[in-house]
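Hi all, posting the design record for the shared folder.

TITLE: backbone redesign
STEP: 1 of 1
STRUCTURE INPUT:
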């Protein structure tokens, strides 16, 4: 069964409304459930799903039940050299009955309170270690083979859709003279994203999955997270702590003042005076 990302409570999953489960297909041999809630989200794929591959039950030959729909999922599995024939794709309403079923623990235990699909609002140190040990060197080796040069860079992560910045043109006028380069991460494959962040000396971005890439930064790099007041969760602050990055945040106001689930998707406005002060404070101004 595929977790539904638009459901904040597992009790509301569409499978709960069905009078009976789909027909169970018999699966011969071992099957390891690697998929996890919200696995189609870049952050949760990196920090909740991929680290489960480290479990000894995954071995080198067991079949792995996981998502393989989005490009970043395919890219990461390719970097980890997991052959296609080992993958059993997670699908909606798929019901398998394996001879032997393994379910590795998630990197962090779920919150005890509903909604039960939520995770603690911080990353796991083990997840950070896994990503830096397994994905980072493989991606850098592949980029080096393509002749990609390395140089320190200042990165501003642009967003479209959820939590876009309403005064972005003014923001870019402030950041561009300081050497910040706007990037759209959806235009880069996983290997390119890892390489980009590994050579960044400073990163600025609104709270969102793209900031997951700071796990690939070098220690002492400066991260500034533009943090919506309605969604001030320390996911990326915890990553910075584990990796040894310098972290600062700046609260940004949502243009929609409604229930929390609308606030977190709404455009935001950045106070440029406060950001300029923060840039001076961190030595980036």
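Okay, here is what came back for every position:
SEQUENCE:
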């Amino acid at each position: 069964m595929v977790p539904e990302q638009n459901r904040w409570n597992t009790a509301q999953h569409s499978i709960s409304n069905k009078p009976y489960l789909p027909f169970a297909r018999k699966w011969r041999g071992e099957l390891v459930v690697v998929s996890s809630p919200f696995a189609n989200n870049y952050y949760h794929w990196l920090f909740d799903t991929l680290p489960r591959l480290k479990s000894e039950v995954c071995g080198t030959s067991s079949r792995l039940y996981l998502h393989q729909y989005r490009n970043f999922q395919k890219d990461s599995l390719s970097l980890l050299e997991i052959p296609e024939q080992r993958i059993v794709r997670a699908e909606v309403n798929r019901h398998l009955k394996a001879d032997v079923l393994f379910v590795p623990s998630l990197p962090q235990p779920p919150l005890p309170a509903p909604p039960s699909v939520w995770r603690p609002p911080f990353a796991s140190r083990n997840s950070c270690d896994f990503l830096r040990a397994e994905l980072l060197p493989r991606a850098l080796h592949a980029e080096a083979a393509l002749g990609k040069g390395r140089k320190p860079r200042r990165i501003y992560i642009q967003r479209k859709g959820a939590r876009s910045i309403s005064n972005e043109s003014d923001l870019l006028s402030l950041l561009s003279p300081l050497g910040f380069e706007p990037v759209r991460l959806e235009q880069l494959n996983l290997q390119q994203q890892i390489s980009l962040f590994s050579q960044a000396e400073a990163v600025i971005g609104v709270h969102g999955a793209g900031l997951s890439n700071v796990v690939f930064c070098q220690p002492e790099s400066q991260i500034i997270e533009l943090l919506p007041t309605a969604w001030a969760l320390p996911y990326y602050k915890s990553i910075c702590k584990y990796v040894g990055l310098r972290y600062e945040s700046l609260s940004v106001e949502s243009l929609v003042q409604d229930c929390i689930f609308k606030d977190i998707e709404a455009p935001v406005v950045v106070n440029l005076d406060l950001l300029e002060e923060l840039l001076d404070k961190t030595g980036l101004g």
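COMMENT: The chain has eight helices and ten strands.
Let me know if anyone wants the other runs.
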